Amino acid sequence: MRRYLVALAALLALLAQPAHAGPAADAMGKCLLDHASQKDRTDLMRWMFANAALHPDVASIAAVSPEVRQDIDRTAAQLVQRLVFDSCRSESGNALRTEGPAAMQLAFQRLAQLIGDNLVANPAVAQGSANILRYMDVSRLPMLLMP
After folding, report:
1. Fewest CB within a 10 Å sphere: which of 12, 33, 74, 119?
2. How many CA atoms lie less than 13 Å away from 62 in the CB half-sphere?
3. pLDDT tens string 67-123
4. Nearest alpha carbon to residue 12 among 145, 131, 102, 122
5. Rounded distance, CA 145 to CA 126, Å?
């Protein structure tokens, strides 16, 4: 079981790789979306952020202690396990059998996309993101409309 969770975590890490969803991946993705509560989505957002903080280019501005990381990993593992093996067991099995491991990747990619959308839609995050406009020459934007 532990090896499966490690493999699933690695699969989730590949979310950025392009692939095309088939009907089984779509059904699994819909199931994941339907069964992931707001708390689940927050827990997965924390897991995604904690893992992004491992990248050397951002590690100095987003440190996560080993104890916090362990707690986040444990919570995410339990959540993924519940979604895959319990809430969406039929859809997960069908996706894996008929479309292979990439189907699971695509199904979780849908959930990750929703989490990312919710992240940037947060008013504090949106305001923080808009701060970049203070440093841009936005008067150049109309030039993009010219041929």
Report:
1. 74
2. 15
3. 999 999 999 999 999 999 999 999 999 999 999 999 999 999 999 999 999 888 999
4. 102
5. 25
